[in-house]
Design brief:
Layout lengths: L4 E9 L2 E10 L4 E8 L2 E5 L4 H12 L6 E6 L5 H7 L4 E8 L2 H8 L6 H6 L3 E5 L2 H6 L13 E6 L19 H8 L2 E11 L5 H8 L4 E9 L8 E9 L1
Parallel strand pairs: 5-6, 5-8, 6-7, 8-9
Antiparallel strand pairs: 1-2, 2-3, 3-4, 9-11, 10-11
Helix pairs in contact: 1-2
Length: 237
């Protein structure tokens, strides 16, 4: 019998108190893992459709073979695992600002950690994704000026609902343009949002990329009558 609730870890980080919790969710009759930052929910594996869609849609838009992929934001690992399910992927670098989240995966505290750490294509790296994309050297600090075939981002709740001030300048024409320098020609930028599609965000992407569009991701929520819609924004260099 599962415990009804258990706090697996609690750490004070530079952007707030981070906690990992496991609870039994009677609506779906299984354990659910949740990450909270202070009093705010960051992620729960009760619903992961849009996090997986970020990887699936982003990679479907990529052309060619032997793809090098970067993911900003590790979370519970669903986007990263979905990337690795694509056989064309030859490398994946996942950057997370919080070393604690990486440690949860590496120690096996999170269910998907073993899949990520066992795959030789995958590198988990602590770093400030927003500062790295704004830098001249780029996302991979060990390989300056490295380019990727896709860069997929799931960090803030949306471009208008930020976790902290580090990303203030990212969701702008200049921020998107700086990120595009780290993509191959034809490369894909994918951005997750907790909100339904917003034409203002798509238009903003189109100021930095020649092609931009929004993909709504609609899914059922346990014991809720109305479906819920989140968004994956995509842009091509």
């Amino acid at each position: 019998m599962s415990r009804q609730f258990e706090e697996l870890d609690y750490q004070v980080t530079p952007i707030g108190a981070l906690s990992l919790r496991r609870r039994y969710e009677a609506r779906i009759e299984q354990d659910v893992f949740e990450i909270k930052l202070d009093d705010e929910f960051l992620m729960s594996d009760i619903i992961t459709a849009s996090e997986i869609a970020l990887a699936k849609l982003g990679l479907a838009a990529c052309q060619g073979e032997q793809l090098d992929i970067a993911v900003g934001g590790l979370g519970l690992g669903y986007t990263a695992v979905a990337v690795l399910e694509e056989p064309r992927v030859q490398s994946l670098m996942v950057i997370d600002f919080l070393s604690t989240v990486i440690e949860w995966h590496e120690s096996g505290l999170l269910p998907l950690g073993a899949q990520l750490t066992a795959d030789a294509r995958c590198t988990l790296r602590q770093g400030d994704f927003f500062a790295l994309t704004a830098s001249n050297d780029g996302i991979d600090a060990k390989t300056p000026n490295r380019k990727f075939h896709a860069i997929l981002v799931d960090i803030d709740h949306s471009p208008d609902a930020l976790l902290d001030g580090r990303s203030n300048s990212f969701y702008t024409t200049d921020g998107f343009t700086r990120l595009s320098r780290h993509l191959h020609e034809g490369g894909i930028f994918g951005l997750w949002s907790d909100d339904p599609p917003d034409p203002i965000i798509t238009a903003r992407l189109a100021t930095a990329f020649p092609e931009a569009w929004a993909e709504p991701v609609t899914f059922a929520v346990p014991r809720r009558e109305e479906p819920f819609t989140q968004t994956v924004y995509l842009a091509r260099k």
